[in-house]
Design a protein that fits this description.
This protein is of the alpha/beta class. The protein has 15 helices and 20 strands. A five-stranded mixed β-sheet has the order 2-1-3-10-11, covered by helices on one side. Strands 13-14-17-18-20 form a five-stranded mixed beta barrel. The longest helix has 19 residues. The model has no long low-confidence stretch (mean pLDDT 96). The structure holds (2S)-2-hydroxybutanedioic acid and iron/sulfur cluster. (2S)-2-hydroxybutanedioic acid binds next to helix 5. Catalyzes the reversible hydration of fumarate to (S)-malate. Its EC number is 4.2.1.2.
Length: 514
Amino acid sequence: MEKFQESMYKLIVETSTNLPKDVRRAIAAAKIRENAGTRAAMSLETITKNIKMADENVSPICQDTGLPTFKIKVPVNVNQIEMKKAIKKAVAEATSDAKLRPNSVDSITGDNSGDNLGEGTPVIKFEQWEEDYIDVRLILKGGGCENKNIQYSLPAELEGLGRAGRDLDGIRKCIMHSVYQAQGQGCSAGFIGVGIGGDRTSGYELAKEMLFRSAEDVNPNENLRKLEEYVMENANKLGIGTMGFGGETTLLGCKVGVINRIPASFFVSVAYNCWAYRRLGVKVDPVSGEIQEWLYQEGEEVDFDKMKEEAAAALEEKAEVRQVTLEAPITEEQIRELRVGDVVTINGMMHTGRDAIHKYLTDHDAPVDLNGQIIYHCGPVMAKDEEGNWVVKAAGPTTSIREEPYQGDIMKKFGIRAVIGKGGMGKKTLQALGDHGGVYLNAIGGAAQYYAECMQKVEGVDLMEFGIPEAMWHINVKGFTAVVTMDSHGNSLHQDVESSSLEKLSQFKEPVFK
Ligand SMILES: O=C(O)C[C@H](O)C(=O)O
Ligand code: SF4
């Protein structure tokens, strides 16, 4: 097993930087379905460009490299303790090489361990089997989509769908509802794994297990096959679309599994995974520890480039999108001119700020003058170059709704004019945008390479005690593009999509599986 650590390092790097072919095919198919020139098509264009860049740069597809979770099947007599040690070393090495973001945080103190190791991280699960090779699967599932996982306890009353009973039709309603409630916040279009039965723990366990199935397999259980097909066909009618911008594709995959339950409990557990569905697997030789075969990689290379040309041509024809360039400091007047749907290109300074910073700013002064400035909800992957300067390795947006309790007050307190994030914000922020003259810009979640390329120089960093993802980075950007989805006139695309998708959800109220 001399080569095992090196094999695990390769598996981690490949999983973080190179999306598997079954996932690429699902994204390519979605791209074909979207009408050229729409926001959904433009977003998918950015997503596919980002996938290619990550591959070429051997850098994280998304800055949130999640909670590394390994599922391993081993022949008897293989030393699991040694394997665990090797995996941990490989995780730490991949973190110091900026292939993983330091993501392991003490839940009470907030201290970041810096190397992705700590109580409960990474997750490593073993099972023995009678084959003569080791099967290692890895999933890097980020926090935004993890937060959209949901567990139903049947019977339940569901928004838009009414009663969900303890039967196949009740399960169908839960799954449809799970897609609706995720909206764009888990970086749709997503993949879902569903676990029927079990208890609260084993139900979720099964749901996550389903995310290790190939996106293209066919469920051998007839009832579940029908259910999966039904969900794939109908969830896409909800109109949530890529990043919740509206559009034809909301769901890229649905895999359902079932286990027994005890009489009193009936759980339906759903694990939501963003489009940046980073899971891979390898077969490993139990003597040398070398990789024998890669999993999920059957078939031809997926060529996004050809579609890119077609989409770009169609885009030019539909040039009615208003394009605005902004550079901080921004005036209130400039903000008041912006409307939902405008595409904004930013040059100059922006400052990152996410959960720890928002909490901090409520009762502290800002480390820099934020008047007229732009806040980017982002926890980047950073590295130092040979001269010791920070460089941005991956920097897509994080889910903005977590800052809802703070955002409006902070904008007013410091005079911030624009916030960039993803998934949109709520009523309180919308009100503050109107009162104060602010705007919310939606960037494409997961497009971490695409945005990192716009980041020309890191001018400084404050509050490093919060750890790399949570610190406040001051970054000079060029050509950073995002869409206005909430403006200072009370308009919110997120609110509109949420209410129209709720209306569409209610079309699925009548029983289907009797
Ligand atoms: O933590 C992050 O960078 C992003 C997170 O995965 C999110 O989707 O909000
Ligand atoms: S930012 Fe989006 S793509 Fe990245 S991990 Fe979070 S949910 Fe996934």
